DNA sequence: GCCAACGTTGGC
DNA sequence: GCCAACGTTGGC
């Protein structure tokens, strides 16, 4: 059982979008970074904990708790010529990009990035490190526990 | 819209 | 295999 922080741009898929989808789940398509891909392909398992993070928006931060609901499978968008995620070097025989499905557990009152930065317990979190751009990062179980038990209020 | 950080590309 | 140029991310 592992824990992850996964960034989504709410203009693309927000926590409310996720809540409205069938099974409240979504294919985590569009990851085009090898390190993030490898996390999904090689390390994620069904049931892993996910912090659903809103990035590139007015108030970035953690918007919900979710879970990994499938193992990794080829990202369909890599074959879609009309998609910005199309990859001409990918074939069904040799897919290059993978994704898991992520399912909502619960929406939470937003924990903003600026609030996260106030907690010394979280200072080692990768998402808080300067210059970090990875859209998927592993979370230390202590960080997961701190966020989901101390910071989530409702 | 700025720009720092950093990943990728491609010439050599 | 180096590394400069370029593109992207994402907070501010």
From TrEMBL:
SUPFAM superfamilies reported in the protein's UniProt record: PUA domain-like
UniProt xrefs under Pfam families: EVE
Domain of life: Bacteria
Gene3D superfamilies xref list: ph1033 like domains
Domain EVE: 2-148
Signal sequence bounds: none
InterPro entries named among the record's database cross-references: 5hmC_binding (IPR052181), EVE_domain (IPR002740), PUA-like_sf (IPR015947), THYN1-like_EVE (IPR047197)
Entries under PANTHER family matching the protein: THYMOCYTE NUCLEAR PROTEIN 1 (PTHR14087:SF7)
Protein name: EVE domain-containing protein
Species of origin: Gallionella capsiferriformans (strain ES-2) (Gallionella ferruginea capsiferriformans (strain ES-2))
